[in-house]
Description:
The chain is mainly β. The protein has one domain (23-205): Jelly Rolls, CATH 2.60.120. The chain has one helix at residues 2-8, and strands spanning 10-12, 18-20, 23-25, 35-39, 50-53, 56-59, 65-69, 76-83, 92-97, 107-111, 120-123, 138-139, 154-161, 164-169, 172-177, 186-191, 196-205. The strands form three sheets. Strands 3, 5, 6, 8, 13, 14, 15 and 17 form an eight-stranded antiparallel sheet that branches. The protein has a seven-stranded antiparallel sheet with strand order 4-7-16-9-10-11-12, with no helix packed on it. A two-stranded antiparallel sheet has the order 1-2. A hairpin with an 8-residue loop joins strand 10 (107-111) and strand 11. It is globular and about 40 Å long. The relative contact order is 0.25.
Amino acid sequence: MLVLCAVLGASVTAQNECAPVLNTSLFNGKDLNNWEFYLRDPSVDPGKVFMVKDAAIHITGNPFGYMRTKEQYSDYKLHLEWRWPVEATNSGVFIHAQKPDTIWPACFECQLKAGSAGDFICMGGSDMNERTDKTQRAVAKKTGSNEMPVGEWNTMEVTCKGNTIEVVINGTLQNKATGTSLSKGSICLQSEGKAVEFRNVFLTKI
């Protein structure tokens, strides 16, 4: 049974039965067919901003915008890796993003800005218990920055369960949100100024 489960890519339950591991790849390393695109300047071809190079998503950063999953998701763990290929700059991962598309949609941004990876930004009217100062959209991360140098890959894992979101950066829990006003939506990778790359983007259902 153990051998069979390993071959099938499944886990073993207490009853010694195979239980499937429900992973969803959001990026196959070849194309961006699972994604839609929004740019502040609609005259720009998204294919010149969002592209695949060497099995990674390359985002030029200009103009501002994002790539959005066509599907909406809830109750999952998102895994992705990112790096700055040229210089440490700015980007973000939008969680529970809602339509209509605008440059700052209703969502929770998991900040990737250099030095601030792990901050939350409540956008488009979204809210959480930890945002005690309603004049500010940002909820700062819990510990100091633990990002890798330019050119090296970082890991972000975002766990969404009901109205709770946890963000782990390079193995360190950096933030936790409770009582979130949104619990389902699309996932977006942001174009925000300069080049950023992503790879190994997938979900595990929880």
